Inverse folding.
């Protein structure tokens, strides 16, 4: 008889939080971290997931004990100069006797700029931004930790995440949508439901290695805004040339990287069939179902 699943999630945010909720009923126990007491209290009102407070600055109360009995650990906390989970809870992970698998949510930003060419998990990363360099360094730290502990590590490099509450409809409704045009620029996206489905497939197989989480169709960002505006029946914001756009340094850095991200590995090795293979299907479904808010 197989050992019951005990899942611990570092960072119950937008994507990992949904995955934890999807695992209710499949795992004997699920725990995870949030950054504040207020968030812990709110999550405690929901059944099935036990919250712990971990702000990344010091070890979370009760976290070490919970991690030590986990069979699976998923990490969804961005690193700074070092990885906060490894800085404060690496010893607990190494002491987890029943640990079978570690998953780490990273970003396709680690690839850097490839001039619009296709990249896959075999492509050599050359991150440009400080954030992406920190992510790649964290990936390597987790690979070392998993190897020393003797468990498989799956690294999930995610494209731009969208879904309920985080999409072009919301930006349009709040007056925050922009159509910045940089010729030849494309981005991949991934619906949060497809992230959850891919994590579940990897989890079931105790999969190891790097996996790109991206849709089938890298597309110009201005097209996404225009399509959403059409569904809403509103005028899209005017197009603005990239050189004339008033962008934050972070937003401008995103436009400094141009690549098309292949998702073939999650299809071939994990058997994933994307529910929303492109932004049009994802946005149309949310608008039709009224789930965009």
């Amino acid at each position: 008889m197989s050992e019951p699943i005990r899942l611990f999630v570092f960072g119950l945010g937008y994507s990992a939080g949904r995955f934890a909720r999807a695992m209710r009923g499949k795992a004997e126990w699920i725990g995870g971290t949030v950054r504040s007491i207020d968030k812990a209290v709110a999550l405690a009102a929901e059944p099935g997931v036990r919250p712990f407070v971990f702000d990344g600055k010091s070890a979370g109360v009760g976290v070490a004990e919970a991690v030590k009995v986990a069979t699976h650990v998923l990490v969804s906390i961005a690193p700074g100069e070092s990885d906060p989970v490894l800085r404060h809870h690496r010893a607990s992970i190494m002491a987890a006797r029943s640990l079978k698998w570690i998953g780490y949510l990273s970003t396709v930003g680690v690839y850097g700029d490839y001039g619009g060419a296709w990249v896959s998990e075999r492509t050599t990363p050359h991150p440009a931004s400080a954030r992406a360099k920190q992510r790649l360094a964290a990936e390597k730290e987790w690979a070392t930790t998993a190897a020393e502990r003797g468990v498989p590590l799956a690294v999930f490099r995610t494209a731009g995440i969208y879904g309920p509450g985080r999409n072009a409809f919301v930006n349009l409704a709040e007056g925050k949508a922009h159509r910045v045009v940089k010729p030849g620029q494309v981005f991949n996206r991934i619906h949060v439901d497809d992230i959850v489905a891919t994590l579940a497939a990897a989890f079931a197989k105790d999969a190891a290695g790097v996996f790109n989480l991206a849709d089938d169709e890298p597309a110009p960002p201005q097209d996404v805004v225009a399509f959403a505006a059409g569904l809403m029946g509103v005028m899209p914001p005017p197009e603005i040339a990239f050189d004339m756009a008033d962008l934050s340094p972070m937003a401008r850095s995103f436009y400094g990287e141009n690549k098309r991200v292949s998702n073939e590995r999650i299809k071939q090795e994990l058997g994933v069939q994307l529910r929303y293979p492109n932004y049009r299907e994802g946005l149309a479904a949310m608008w039709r179902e009224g789930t965009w808010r």
